[in-house]
Amino acid sequence: MLFDMPTIDFHTFWMKNTFIPLDVIFLNSNFRVIGYVKNNKPLSLNPISINKKSKYILEINAREINRHNIKINDYIEFYIK
User: Fold this and answer.
1) pTM for the full model?
2) Is residue 22 a contact partner of residue 15, using CB atoms and an 8 Å limit?
3) How far is CA 16 from the centre of its chain?
4) pLDDT in tens, the chain (81 residues)
5) On the chain, which terminus has fewer CB atoms closer than 10 Å, C or N?
6) Domains assigned to the chain
7) What is the CB neighbour count within 10 angstroms for residue 47?
8) Residue 5's closest CA among 24, 26, 23?
9) 75 in Cβ contact with 32 (< 8 Å)
10) Which string of b and e fits 12-33 if b means at least 16 CB within 10 Å?
11) Hey, what long-range contacts does 14-21 have (CB within 8 A, 24 or more apart)?
C-alpha cells in the first residue's frame, strides 16, 4: 500500500490491525528510497520510523526488500494497469 502523506515530515507508522509482517519503505517526493524498516511484527504498536523526512510510505510484504535488493537511493517506479 502506498501512502501519500499531506506534508514532507518525520512520519511514524505501526502495525495495529495488520495481521501479516510488512516491510515499510520511506520515499522522498521523487520516489527515491530514503530509508526502510524490515519485517515488522504483526499487530505491534511499536513505532516504525526513520530519522529522515519523507513524503511517501510504501508497505510491502515482509522480506520483499531483500528479495528485490532494494537499497537507499533506489528509485521506485509505479505502473497503473
Assistant:
1) 0.95
2) yes
3) 15
4) 999 999 999 999 999 999 999 999 999 999 999 999 999 999 999 999 999 999 999 999 999 999 999 999 999 999 888
5) C
6) 2-67 (2.60.120.1140)
7) 9
8) 26
9) yes
10) ebebeebeeebbbbbbbeeeeb
11) 14/44, 14/45, 14/46, 14/47, 14/48, 15/40, 15/41, 15/42, 15/43, 15/44, 15/45, 15/46, 15/48, 16/43, 16/44, 16/45, 17/43, 18/42, 18/43, 19/43, 20/61, 20/62, 21/61, 21/62
Q: Which amino acid is at 61?
A: N
The three cell numbers of residue 43 are 499487530
- Is residue 54 classed as helix, strand or coil in its secondary structure? strand
**H or E segment to which residue 64 belongs:** helix 64-67
Counted residue by residue, the chain has a size of: 81
